[in-house]
């Protein structure tokens, strides 16, 4: 941190103790903020990618002739769409976490193979993935049957038709709804605080618990960071929408 910035915020605190931006002049607090930011970014990026993959695979499974497969996907969707994400997170960590294997690096301490960060990624990805399955399903259904028939008449298999024809067109239709769900997912990552994942909200609460005068400053920084992350995501997907636009498919 440049010295003039540290001096500025230190003087601000001396003049108005209600605005204590301690993380701008105390290196140890700055490290906590940076650690929390990178953890938030890691959660957001990994969960976004995994939820999209789950959505694509789930939508493909819904269109299979196997009734049992379709029922399994529907059960998954209903479970994750109709229960609160915080409850899901606690269930994965405290309930399923008790059955995960452990390892002992020193012969004494037993460490679960899936950490609290791992359970947060799994829970949040499955939560958002359930919505993505329905988003991609509606996109697939928007692709005309004549387009699928034309692909099959050219010798494409069912999987090839889905991969090369249906999915690219369905993506274009699904992007606006997908944008909304992924933005919601990024905001939902704050709930990982409930299982002590050291993301940004967790670190900010820890800072103002240690320094009560830093509460206003911590919440302001938290607000700015999330507004920026969401703005970048929205801008990126809107740019993607424009770049892949095909007349008649409404991306």
CATH class of the domain at 35-201: Mainly Alpha
CATH topology of the domain at 35-201: MetI-like fold
Overall 3D geometry? globular
Strand order of the largest sheet: 1-2
CATH architecture of the domain at 35-201: Orthogonal Bundle
Distance between the amino and carboxyl termini: 43 Å
What's the order of the H and E elements? HHHHEEHHHHH
Relative helix content: over 70%
Structural class, please? Answer: mainly alpha
Average pLDDT, rounded to a whole number, is: 89
Q: CATH superfamily membership of the domain at 35-201, which one?
A: MetI-like
DSSP summary, beta strand count: 2
Beta-strand percentage?
under 5%
Radius of gyration over all CA atoms, rounded: 23 Å
Low-confidence region ranges? none
Main pleated sheet: 2 strands, antiparallel
Treating each run of at least 4 consecutive H or I residues as one helix, how many helices?
Answer: 9
Brief sketch in words of this structure:
With 251 residues, the chain is an all-alpha fold. It has a domain at 35-201: Orthogonal Bundle (MetI-like fold). Helix content is 72%, strand content 2%.
Describe it.
This protein has a domain at 35-201: MetI-like (MetI-like fold, Orthogonal Bundle). Helices cover 72% and strands 2% of the residues. It is built from nine helices and two strands. The protein has helices at 3-15, 27-62, 67-81, 85-95, 116-141, 145-153, 158-188, 200-210, 215-243, and strands spanning 102-103, 111-112. A two-stranded antiparallel sheet has the order 1-2. Strand 1 (102-103) and strand 2 form a beta hairpin.
């Amino acid at each position: 941190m440049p010295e003039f910035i540290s001096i500025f915020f230190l003087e601000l605190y001396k003049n108005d103790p209600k605005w204590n931006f301690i993380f701008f002049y105390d290196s140890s607090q700055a490290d906590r903020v940076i650690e929390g930011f990178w953890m938030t970014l890691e959660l957001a990026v990994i969960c976004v990618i995994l939820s999209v993959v789950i959505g694509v695979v789930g939508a493909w499974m819904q269109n299979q002739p196997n009734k049992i497969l379709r029922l399994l996907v529907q059960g998954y969707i209903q479970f994750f769409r109709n229960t609160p994400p915080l409850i899901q997170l606690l269930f994965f960590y405290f309930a399923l976490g008790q059955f995960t294997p452990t390892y002992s690096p020193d012969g004494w301490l037993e460490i679960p193979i899936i950490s609290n960060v791992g359970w947060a990624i799994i829970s949040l990805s499955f939560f958002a993935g359930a919505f993505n399955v329905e988003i991609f399903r509606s996109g697939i259904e928007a692709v005309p049957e004549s387009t699928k028939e034309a692909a099959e008449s050219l010798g494409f298999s069912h999987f090839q038709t889905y991969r090369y024809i249906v999915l690219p067109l369905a993506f274009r239709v699904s992007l606006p709804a997908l944008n909304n769900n992924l933005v919601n997912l990024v905001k939902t990552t704050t709930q990982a605080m409930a299982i002590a994942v050291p993301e940004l909200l967790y670190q900010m609460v820890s800072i103002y618990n240690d320094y009560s005068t830093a509460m206003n400053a911590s919440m302001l920084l938290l607000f700015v960071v999330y507004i920026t992350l969401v703005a970048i995501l929205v801008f990126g997907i809107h740019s993607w929408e424009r770049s892949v636009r095909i007349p008649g498919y409404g991306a």
